[in-house]
Automatic annotation (TrEMBL):
Cross-referenced PANTHER family: ACETYLTRANSFERASE-RELATED, N-ACETYLTRANSFERASE DOMAIN-CONTAINING PROTEIN
Domain of life the protein comes from: Bacteria
Official protein name in the record: GNAT family N-acetyltransferase
SUPFAM superfamilies from the UniProt entry: Acyl-CoA N-acyltransferases (Nat)
InterPro entries the record matches: Acyl_CoA_acyltransferase (IPR016181), GNAT_dom (IPR000182)
Domain N-acetyltransferase residues, every copy: 3-156
């Protein structure tokens, strides 16, 4: 399988919308935002993200098909990584491959990430890329309509 990153194109956004509104993906991610549920908020979110020069944002391709996106965002001391891989592409090593490529694009350390404590797949992806668990907390997960345990990870 050919896995690669490229700059975001307008034609990627409908795929991202489809992925972000997938109830199973939302449940796994747990911590969702308004833009996961409302197309107007989605469009505003992506316009803001795309106009922010501090954000490193890439579309994930798997065999030429849009499989998701990855990004680094936030101020220098609080840079975070995020990634979304559509459910049709889960379990194929795509997230690990593209996260490793993404963190090579960002020289700033530390990098941070959060994952639902029961999202073993995401935690494993982050650990394979060098992140270590540095803390835990609880937060409200809109996708689950309940408080959940959250794991904080750091790449130094």
């Amino acid at each position: 399988m050919d896995i690669s990153l490229r700059r975001l194109e307008d034609s990627d956004l409908p795929v991202f919308w489809q992925q972000l509104t997938d109830p199973e993906l939302q449940r796994m991610a747990a911590v969702t935002r308004k833009y996961h549920y409302d197309r107007g908020h989605f469009d505003q979110h992506w316009a803001r993200v795309r106009s922010d020069p501090s954000v490193i944002l890439r579309t994930v391709l798997a065999d030429g098909v849009v499989a998701g996106h990855v990004a680094v965002f936030g101020p220098p001391q609080e840079r975070e990584v995020t990634y979304v891989i559509g459910r049709a592409h889960w379990g194929r090593g795509i997230a690990t491959t593209v996260l490793a490529e993404l963190i090579e694009l960002e020289p700033v350390r530390p990098l941070h990430a959060d994952a639902a404590a029961d999202n073993a797949g995401s935690i494993r992806v982050l650990q394979k890329c060098g992140f270590v668990v540095t803390g835990k907390s609880r937060c409200f997960a809109r996708a689950r309509d309940e408080e959940i345990d959250l794991v904080h990870l750091t790449l130094s």
